[in-house]
Amino acid sequence: MEEAAPPREDEALVVTVPSIETERLRLRGHRPEDLADCAAMLASPEVTRFIGGKPFSEEVVWTKLLRHIGHWSVMGFGFWVIEEKATGSFVGETGFVDFKRDIEPGLDGSPEIGWALVPSAQGKGFATEAARAAITWQETHQAWPRTVCMIEPGNSASIRVAEKCGYREFARTTYKDRPTILLERARVAPAPVREFPSPATRS
Predict the structure, then answer these.
(1) What distance separates the 2 farthest-apart alpha carbons in the chain?
(2) Given this model, what pLDDT does residue 198 score?
(3) How far apart are CA 80 and CA 18, in angstroms?
(4) Do the domain assignments include residue 186?
(5) Are 157 and 122 in contact (CB under 8 A)?
(6) What's 125's domain CATH number?
(7) At 190, is the pLDDT very low, low, confident or very high (cuts 50, 70, 90)?
(8) Is the pTM here over 0.70, yes or no?
(9) pLDDT average, residue stretch 44-59
């Protein structure tokens, strides 16, 4: 049996994750050295209360981090690390994913936005600021007609963030035996440029 030839260098899936800056935040791609910060965030019951309902082990977080890095290579979009510009500190994650979720009603291939912040960064408007930056990026570079998000009914803080970003509820369901609100946001098309005839040239 012949062994498969190794992939050519030009076949490698390599994507440079764009960096985005807002007034207070910097969004950048994940790196292996982010494991400690990601693991600390997702070990907090305060953070994971509405993300699966229990803290994640470092092993699971490592898999998530690798998935975030690979998602950009395969899909051309994904999650960013959120850093506070003033301090350079890790404050959370945000971005878009397509996880092919087994859920009814289905998401119809619409990219799903999400966010998570460390407890010390919550209540400062960081989630809204970061999510709006991600939305602006996708409307400029992807132009998807629709994006969605999934939030548990008790997560009132995230529901407020989603509503501030233009998401509106379209269904209630369960996902992995947990109650879930599905929200959607239609792309805001850029305003058409109005052209006016030039004044007639006087002779």
Answers:
(1) 84
(2) 44
(3) 9
(4) no
(5) yes
(6) 3.40.630.30
(7) low
(8) yes
(9) 96
